[in-house]
Write a structure and sequence with these properties.
five-stranded antiparallel beta sheet, mainly beta, single chain, elongated, 191 residues, 45% strand
Length: 191
Amino acid sequence: MSSRNPVHPTARLIRAAVTTMAICIAALSLMAAPASADPENGTFATWPAPGPGNVSGSIWQGTASCATQSGVKVCDANVYTSGLMNGWATSNQAYRRLNLEWKIRNNSGTVVKTGSAYCQGATTTISSCERSGPTYLARWPITSTVRICVDTIGYAYYYVSSNGNTAKVTGSDYDCITLSAGSGGGGTPQR
């Protein structure tokens, strides 16, 4: 027989139940606790990214040049693009930068040319950006109706937590032009 005082079986059960309950309460409090800026404990404050600002794309045609080739009159013309972003949030904006991308699509919807540009704030965040996009040389038989379209995509990165995580916020615009053989160029813009 041991010289220690024996522990009553009920006391063991109570001690085990209390220990288990304390562990459960601690786990629940960790799961229910809101995120706070406490890097020592591995938690950080988070917040939602803003919605996108406005994105506006433009597409237009330069002067057409037409010639007869093998009995078919064929025209060539440059198609120009540009993009404008405005009304973008400046609070929590990462990198002081707004970005533009373009995807020019031919009559069948295939991407035939891409391009990108950006605006960079010198010392502060920025809310607007306007840049020229890529140029595409289109060729078509004068008897065909041809539409060239452009996807204009604007995006920026925003900080969404106190540990420096960012989220990409994107907006876009889609515009088309029906090509014209008229000597003045311009084409017929369509949305």
